[in-house]
Each structure stands twice: as C-alpha cells, then as structure tokens.
C-alpha cells in the first residue's frame, strides 16, 4: 500500500485589518472582504410568493450597488443541534423543558461575504480603494436595514471562529477541534465524518432548467398543491447530515468587455450554420436582449453544497441532494474529483481559488433564483412570552400581545379562536392559560395575570386545581350573583348606563328579543332618573340594586309615558322582571353583592354547563360574569387580565347585546386586558352580524385550529375573518406536513396577529397532558392520584412514575387506575 502524502493545510489569508468600522479579511492574492451576518427575509412556510420576489429584488439592488469587480459570497449554514433549554422555575414548565431536552433539530444561519477583487499585477495598498469599499458595504448594509433586516459585521474573533467552524464542519459545538483531512476523489474525511462537495454545474456541461423562478410550488400532496417554497428548500429535509453549507457565489464581471466577447462568440457560431450553432446564437441573443431590455448585469456564478455526515451514511445523504436537484432540472457535477479545492473555496474571501470551469455565465437575475431565501422561526424578544413549537417540533417563544402592539401589528390584545371538535382547541387554550398564569407563582414575577373563564364543558378543571384557583359551578342552591347597580357617582358614565340598559332589555325581552326605540329610550331615562335620585344626599334609596331599581321604575315609568303620551307595556315589563325581584324565582341574581373574595383571585373558572340550554338564565348569568370581570378589572389595576368565553359567547351574540359587547371590548383594553372568545360551531358564526361587527372586528388576533372539516365552506369563513389567499394556503397546511417523526402527540394551530399569521405546534409533556385532559376517564384517574397525595404536583409525579413502571399503554393504565380506585403503586395484587 503506497504511503499517503502528508501536506500541511495552508490557510489562504495574510491577515485581518480594521478599517472604517469593519474588520477586513485579506487573502494571499490581495483580495479583501468583510463577513456580514444577515437574515433571510422569507420565513419558512410564509405562503406568500411576493416574499421571494422581494428577496430577489433586494439582492438585485445590492449587486447593482456594488458593481464590477465585486464578489458576493452568500453562505447558508444548516447544522444539527440538540435542544438544551435553561431550566424554568415553574413546575409544569420544567416538565416541558425535560420533554424537549436533547431533541435534535436543524438550526440555520446566513453569512454574506462581500469581496473586492484585486487588480492583476503586483498588489499595492490603496487607502482610497479601502474607503470606496467600506462605503459600498455601508450602502449595502443600509439597504438591508431599510428592509427591516438586521446586519452585523463580524469582528476578528468571530471571523477566526467562523473559519475554524468551516474547517471542522462543526457549527453545533462550543469547543472546536480540528482533525486531519484525508482528501479523496469523492469526499474528504475528517475524524469519523465525511464531507462531500456537490457542485450544481458540471465541468463539461451546464444542465440547468431553461426557465427558473424565484421560488417553486409544491405538488407532492393535494392539500399542499400550489404552496410556494424555496427552490433549495429541500435542504431542510436532507437526512443524516451534521452540517450543510450552501455556498452561493456571484462574481460581477466587467460588463463591456464580456459583452464584446459574447458578440464575438455569436459571430463565430453564426458563421457555421447548423443546429447546435443556431441554438447557441439564440441563447446569446436572448442573453444580450435581457441585459439591454431589463438593465441586468452579467455575472459569473458558482453554487456548491458542502455536506458532512457519518461515513456510513454520507452516500444516502448525497443521493437525496442529487435527486432533489434532478427533480428541478439540475444535474449536478459527476466529475467533482477536486473535492479539496471545492472545500477550500467555501472559506470566506477565498473564491479566487475557483477555476473558470467552476463558473457559468448568466444574468444576475437568473443567478439569484438559486440563492437560498428562507429562514426559520426564532424566539421573539419580549418580556411577555408563551412557548409553542415550530414546524420541526422545537419550542419557540412568541409574544401574543405586547410586542405586536408595540410594533403596530395589532391594535388590541383580544383574540377569536375557532376550531372544530377534536382539533385540539381545548388543549391549546389550556396551554395558553397555563403560561398566562405561570408567573403568578414566581418569586420575582415579570408580571401578574388574572384569568377569568366562562366555560360550559369542564375543560379547565385540572388547570384550575393545579393553580389553586376558584372553580365556581352554577347550581340552583348556589347561583352566581352580582349587583351591577352598585356603582358610585364617579363610576357612572354613558358606557355603564348602556351596559345596564342592555341588561334590563335582556331581562325583559330575552337575548333573542327586540326592543323598540321608544322602549329603549324609556329604560334609558329611567336609569338616568334612578341614579339622579341615588346620588342625591337626601335619597330614600338605601342601596342601589335591582330591587330598588324595580320599585323606582314601576313608579317612574307610568308617570313618564303619561306625560309624553307614548306606548309602553308597563304591565308586561312589571310581570316579566318580577321574577328577579326579592322573593322571585331569581331574586338573588342581581341583588346580592358579588363574593368580594373573587376580586383577589388570580384564576377563576365559572362553569355554567348546567344552564347552557336555559334561555332565560344562560344569557343573564353570562352577563353577570362579564360584569364581575369588569369590576375585577377596575379593582386589580396592577395585573394583566384575560376574560375567556368558551361556547357561552352564543348567549350574548344577539343584536340586543351588541352594544354591551362593544363596551366590554372597549373597557378591557383600558385596563391592560384582553377578551378571548372560543367556538367550534361553524353555523353559529357564519351570517351572525354580531360576531363579525362586535367580536371579530374587535379581535386583532385570530387563532384557528385544523380547518379541514370546514374546507367546503371556507369562502364564508375567509370572508368573515378577512383571510386572504396567502393566509388561506398557510391555514390548510395545519397538520398536513410530514413532521411527526421523533415527536410526541401534537396538534398545530394558526395564529394571525394583525394581517399575517404563522402555524405553530402544541406539544407538551405528559405532566401537562394529564393536567389539560378533558376526557372524563382520564380526569378521574388523575384525580385519584391528586386526592391521594394532597397536591397536584405530587399526584402528577406519582402518576407518571407508576405509569412508566407499569410498562402499559396509557389508555390501559387509565382504565386500570379507575378500576382499582387507588394509585397503581398501592395495589396489593392485580391479575391482568
């Protein structure tokens, strides 16, 4: 066996110099450049083709700013990392961290290297040339910043680390170790890894598609047909890789001399007429026409995919990349025996080592179509964050309220949630509420949050018990009461008056009834007169409440209708409202003061499932709870607040209540709060003007779960929720991607803040699942543990421990615990 020749790997640099705010990297040929960290502007799965076109135009402009003699080297780096979050302080969030810790994911970063070519001959330092260069960099950076894309110039230490990361093909470890390189015809080897360079252009032939766009559209699945993706988006799906560097190089050649060469070449080919020469003439004519007509630049282009992976798996990885390119009409080079040379050209500011056969001549517009344009979801920087997952199953922090308000993406914090049964709606809402309340348990909270929920299905009983909240179930013996008439002179205003007008109208006519203008004015005048008497120091009204208002109205209204000679059915009014007076059937509802302890509770659930079919009580009790929330808002001025109305919103979605809903939405914003309406019934929202005018139009955040069941009626939903075509495409990707491998059970959710939205995953730990579950057998099994061990945390820990020791399927374990009636770990003997 011949002895292998050992050669030192020589870096192609002479040093780094600081000039005009930039650390400038010089190579051995006198070329110099800067390394900029940038961000691709197209968010993955954004569904808007215009975003790809905007990226394209941005780089077209950047190239025109730079001009001849510059090389643009864009490098998109994908690397596989393990998720390792900082441990959270709150119990359920710590379990969330543990669920995801160690999960492998793909990270992405983009670096832009702009190099100034050296003039032929002996190199001489020119201060003017350096100043011109840094001014050009400033212009390009300004172009990016004006497009809301941050630019960060790497300093000397960062450049050195970046070079070491390339040399080790390691962008995932903090500590870097350089291995010896073994260069072969097909790959390089370093340690236990192999590295392959896959060039998009063959040295002999250029096999590229005749027509290329800024993006492509998916056609692999009917539900995803027409969905726009990056031309190189397949790189996110490459299997078994450790690091991928997609090296994209554009050299802006001398325009005049290059055009002359093309014209000369055209003449040569036209002089010998045959099919091949005629095609060549046509291609040159088309190229020159594009340059002249569209003011495009001629450029030399080079594209190379550098991929590292385990030696045993690298062939499969390469095959995937090559087949993905082939599907786009690109046949990569089969003669890339210069693996070491191609590897070296990936180093920043070292494109001078590319040979003429590594380039192909085209227009800047065409070359930029092969640039990688997408970026991945990142944490939003804010003090108010919740965690969901991105589409690959890694937690990502988003701000559902404050940051969008600060950036004018939304004008209010209110939310409208729509999802059919089984779509994960309750699961998502539990995850949202859990994170809303988690800081209440912190010793040093960033903020405190009050949550009031109106529920009709016991969806939040577990979470309420976990947080030690107040769970109030409506019964005949213990009705939910309040006194909405108990207001001070300072609190009395037109909005409060309108709220009382709505309440009295509903008491009289029911939620679905109609009230005439005369009737409305009579009640309004009665309210005004009532409080005028109440606020009089000599008033005989001891205490404002429904009883005293009822008595006052029965005296005042007859006098008013006689004086004004107007029609008003006082007998009907007296009879219908009598059941809410003193010893009437519902005499306590509007006369007993609200439980004052509720004002100090951070988490309250009003469960009114028992009266959801009661046409009289359902809307009135819902209004009472909303009034309690409004009182609570005024009382708890230092806390954030959220009112969540599940299916109970139907009780108030009538024209008679429209003004009250508007009053609630207007008031909640003043007191650092938000209203969230949650529904699953399509028929209840389509055609309901109150839903659109009072709820949807005042909810700048729209949250949608899986909409596949509504697909046949989606034009109506899209119209109601103002969903454009791009957002619609995004919505119908919910639960459609092949992204389940290596993940627990999850559902996806679309969250639109303002005009655009994103799709996230709702995936949680087993402890959180047990807290959120709405399945009665599962809730019963969990309660056996929490009751036995005295706290939710202890109960959950023992449940999970017993479940893992049992080696059973989860459903079987639930059944067994319910059958035993005691924790599984305490059983004396059980025969399956």
TrEMBL record:
<dbReference type="InterPro" id="IPR022509">
    <property type="entry name" value="Conjugation_ATPase_TraG"/>
</dbReference>
<dbReference type="InterPro" id="IPR053155">
    <property type="entry name" value="F-pilin_assembly_TraC"/>
</dbReference>
<protein>
    <submittedName>
        <fullName>Bacteroides conjugation system ATPase, TraG family</fullName>
    </submittedName>
</protein>
<dbReference type="InterPro" id="IPR043964">
    <property type="entry name" value="P-loop_TraG"/>
</dbReference>
<dbReference type="InterPro" id="IPR027417">
    <property type="entry name" value="P-loop_NTPase"/>
</dbReference>
<dbReference type="Pfam" id="PF19044">
    <property type="entry name" value="P-loop_TraG"/>
</dbReference>
<feature type="domain" description="TraG P-loop">
    <location>
        <begin position="386"/>
        <end position="801"/>
    </location>
</feature>
């Amino acid at each position: 066996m011949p002895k292998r020749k050992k050669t030192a790997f020589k870096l192609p640099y002479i040093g780094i110099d600081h000039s005009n705010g930039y650390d400038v990297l010089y190579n051995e040929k006198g070329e110099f450049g800067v390394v900029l960290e940038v961000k691709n502007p197209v968010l993955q799965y954004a569904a808007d083709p215009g975003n790809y076109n905007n990226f394209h135009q941005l780089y077209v402009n950047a190239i025109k700013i730079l001009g001849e003699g510059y090389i643009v080297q864009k490098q998109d780096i994908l690397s596989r990392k393990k998720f390792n979050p900082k441990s959270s302080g709150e119990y359920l969030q710590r379990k969330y961290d543990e669920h995801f810790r160690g999960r492998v994911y793909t990270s992405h970063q983009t670096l832009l290297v702009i190099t100034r070519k050296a003039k032929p001959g002996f190199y001489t330092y020119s201060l003017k040339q350096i100043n011109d260069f840094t001014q050009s960099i400033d212009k390009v950076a300004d172009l990016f910043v004006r497009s809301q894309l941050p630019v960060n110039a790497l300093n000397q230490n960062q450049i050195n680390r970046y070079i070491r990361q390339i040399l080790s093909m390691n962008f995932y470890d903090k500590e870097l170790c350089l291995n010896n390189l073994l260069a072969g015809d097909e790959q390089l080897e370093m340690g236990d890894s192999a590295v392959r360079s896959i060039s998009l252009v063959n040295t002999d032939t250029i096999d590229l598609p005749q027509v290329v766009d800024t993006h492509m559209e998916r056609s692999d699945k009917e539900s995803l047909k027409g969905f726009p993706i990056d031309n190189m988006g397949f790189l996110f799906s490459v299997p078994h890789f450790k690091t991928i560097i997609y090296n994209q190089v554009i050299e802006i050649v001398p325009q005049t001399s290059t055009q002359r060469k093309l014209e000369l070449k055209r003449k040569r080919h036209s002089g010998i007429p045959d099919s091949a020469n005629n095609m060549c003439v046509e291609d040159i004519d088309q190229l020159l026409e594009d340059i002249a007509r569209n003011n495009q630049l001629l450029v030399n282009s080079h594209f190379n995919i550098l991929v590292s992976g385990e030696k045993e798996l690298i062939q499969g990885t390469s095959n995937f990349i090559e087949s993905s390119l082939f599907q786009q009409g690109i046949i990569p080079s089969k003669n890339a025996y210069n693996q070491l040379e191609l590897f070296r050209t990936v180093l920043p500011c070292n494109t001078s080592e590319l040979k003429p056969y590594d380039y192909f001549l085209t227009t800047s517009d065409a070359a930029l179509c092969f640039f990688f344009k997408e970026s991945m979801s990142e944490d939003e920087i804010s003090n108010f964050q919740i965690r969901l997952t991105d589409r690959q199953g890694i937690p990502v922090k988003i701000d559902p309220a404050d940051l969008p308000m600060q950036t004018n993406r939304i004008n209010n914090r209110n939310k409208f949630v729509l999802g059919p049964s089984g779509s994960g709606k309750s699961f998502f809402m539990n995850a949202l509420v859990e994170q809303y309340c988690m800081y209440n348990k912190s010793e040093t909270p960033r903020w405190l949050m009050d949550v009031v929920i109106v529920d009709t299905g016991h969806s939040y009983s577990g979470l309420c018990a976990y947080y030690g909240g107040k769970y109030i179930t409506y019964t005949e013996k213990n009705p939910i009461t309040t006194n909405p008439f108990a207001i001070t002179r300072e609190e009395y205003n037109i909005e409060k008056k309108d709220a009382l007008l709505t309440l009295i109208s509903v008491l009289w006519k029911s939620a679905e009834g109609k009230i005439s203008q005369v009737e409305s004015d009579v009640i309004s005048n009665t309210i005004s007169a009532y409080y005028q008497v109440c606020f009089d120091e000599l008033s005989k009204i001891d205490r404002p409440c429904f009883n005293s208002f009822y008595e006052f109205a029965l005296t005042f209204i007859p006098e008013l209708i006689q004086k004004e000679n107007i029609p008003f059915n006082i007998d009907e009014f007296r009879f219908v409202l009598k059941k809410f007076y003193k010893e009437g059937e519902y005499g306590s509802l509007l006369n007993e003061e609200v439980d004052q302890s509720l004002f100090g509770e951070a988490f309250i659930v009003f469960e009114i499932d028992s009266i959801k079919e009661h046409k009289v009580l359902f809307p009135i009790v819902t209004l009472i709870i909303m009034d309690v929330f409004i009182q609570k808002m005024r009382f708890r001025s230092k806390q954030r607040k959220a009112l969540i109305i599940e299916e109970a919103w139907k009780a108030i979605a009538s024209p008679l209540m429209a003004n009250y809903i508007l009053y609630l939405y207007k008031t909640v914003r003043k007191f650092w709060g938000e209203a969230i309406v949650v529904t699953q019934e399509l028929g209840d929202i389509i055609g309901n003007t109150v839903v659109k005018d009072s709820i949807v139009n005042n909810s700048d955040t729209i949250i949608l779960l899986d909409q596949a069941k509504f697909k046949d009626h989606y034009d109506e939903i899209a119209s109601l929720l103002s969903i454009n075509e791009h957002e619609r495409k995004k919505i119908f990707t919910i639960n459609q991607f092949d992204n389940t491998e290596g993940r627990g059970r999850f559902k996806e959710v679309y969250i639109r803040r303002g005009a655009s939205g994103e799709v996230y995953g709702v995936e949680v730990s087993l402890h959180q699942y047990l807290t959120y579950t709405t399945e009665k057998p599962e809730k019963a099994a969990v309660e056996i543990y929490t009751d036995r061990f005295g706290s939710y945390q202890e109960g959950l820990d023992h449940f999970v421990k017993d479940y893992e020791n049992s080696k059973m399927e989860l459903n079987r374990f639930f059944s067994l615990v319910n059958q035993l009636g005691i924790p599984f770990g305490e059983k004396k003997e059980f025969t399956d």
